[in-house]
Specification:
407 residues
Length: 407
């Protein structure tokens, strides 16, 4: 095996992805990065610890690149070699951290029904279609809904997960029952991505009115039509690949009053499969064409959670999410440190406006890996040792509303 990335192999990986031969392309990239058997190499996964017996999540990409015969693409492959050599070192360290961190794994238990559907609530299934395709989704309706306008939260699951699994792990429906919110969970099917990851890294899935963003926005609007929803209090959040997709939605649509990004990446962090590897393992190095996807709209309030021992999505990505969300906004910075009862310590950085309202929050969770903080073991990829990300996310969401209804 070569110790140096071969540009011809890079070109072959691109050709395979464009031909939809996804497993072969991923295997080739992993071989180039010398991590054929690394269990934490699941790109876009909901956790660096893949449950035993489960196929590792795979990024599915039809790379939108230049002519694979050479030219600019070949030059790009050559220029990327230093980044990928550094990436291999990072991956080797990740494998060591994986072995040392096995004691932190919380294997998913059997799904507990009350975590999904609290007493009196309803969890119904529906679907939405447009020219980009179709997606099923599940909608939680709290027991206190009687036709009045309620807030709506859109939750995007991580790789290998489902709406039921994600609802159980985050316990978001339990909190929605307490706060009287509707919650919708779009489902990513395996025919869109073999590991059911949202395709956050593809250019066509980073733009308003195209691909998966159009489907997620369509589901949001369909729920808003079918139920009484306060149009000024619609929010979106997610985990890992779902968090990256939520960041895309916040950057490209004016539907959402605030977004939540748990262990994810910024909009435009990657624009193909190789750059996705780099962004996830080294942090967002602005390899994506951010200017092509970010609009000129108002600042979107953003709350971010990330474990500082995350070996699947580098914690540096959370800083990039906040930086892009803030732009040139003037804020007052406050830092609070604490510890969840019997659990993880954390550093909470708040960026407030002139009136003292928190516009951006960054929760760095010390000692945590790539899992939903404060989640229930009833679902997969959770870390019950807190702090409670779902509770804090909903609290942050409900502090914000759009100044006017979106168009």
């Amino acid at each position: 095996m070569s110790d140096v990335l071969n540009p011809n192999s890079m070109l072959e990986a691109v050709r395979l992805t464009r031909a939809a031969r996804l497993a072969e392309a991923t295997t080739l990239l992993q071989r180039m990065l010398r991590v054929e058997t690394a269990p934490d190499m699941a790109l876009g996964a909901a956790n660096e610890f893949a449950p035993t017996g489960r196929e590792p999540p795979i990024i599915d990409a039809k790379a939108e690149t230049i002519d694979e015969t050479g030219g600019p693409l070949l030059n790009a492959a050559k220029s990327a070699q230093p980044q990928f050599r550094a990436l291999r070192g990072s991956l080797d360290r990740s494998k060591r951290r994986f072995r040392l961190g096995l004691q932190d794994l919380m294997p998913p238990a059997a799904v507990c029904t009350p975590d999904i559907v609290p007493e009196g609530g309803k969890f119904i299934e529906a679907a939405y279609s447009n020219p980009a395709g179709s997606r099923a989704y599940k909608l939680y309706i709290p027991s206190r809904y009687h036709g009045q306008a309620l807030p709506l939260i859109v939750m995007l699951h991580g790789c290998t997960q489902s709406p039921d699994d994600f609802a159980a792990g985050t316990r978001m429906n339990v909190i929605a029952e307490e706060q009287a919110c509707l919650v919708v969970y779009p489902a990513q099917p395996s025919d869109a991505n073999p590991a059911k990851c949202w395709n956050w890294f593809r250019p066509t899935d980073q733009r308003r009115g195209q691909g998966e963003p159009s489907l997620i926005a369509g589901i949001t609007r369909q729920v808003m039509r079918d139920y009484w929803v306060d149009p000024q209090r619609v929010y979106i959040g997610g985990l890992s690949a779902g968090a990256a997709a939520a960041a895309v939605m916040g950057a490209t649509y004016d539907l959402y009053a605030a977004i939540g990004v748990h262990s994810g990446l910024a909009c435009g962090a990657a624009n193909d499969l190789p750059s996705a590897f780099v962004a996830m393992r080294q942090g967002d190095l602005a390899v994506g064409n951010t200017s092509a996807v970010l609009g000129d709209g108002p600042v979107v309030p953003t709350i971010v959670f990330h474990g500082d021992r995350d070996t699947t999505v580098h914690p540096r990505n959370s800083d990039r999410v906040i930086a892009l969300s803030m732009g040139t906004t003037n804020t007052q910075k406050m830092v609070h440190r604490g510890r969840a009862p019997g659990g993880h310590a954390y550093t909470r950085t708040i960026h407030a406006n002139a009136s003292g309202q928190a516009i951006f929050e960054h929760w760095e969770i010390h000692g945590a890996g790539h899992a939903w903080s404060g989640g229930s073991p009833s679902g997969s990829y959770t870390d019950p040792r807190g702090p409670d990300a779902a509770k804090e996310m909903v609290r942050f969401f409900l502090e914000h509303s759009l100044p006017t209804a979106p168009q």
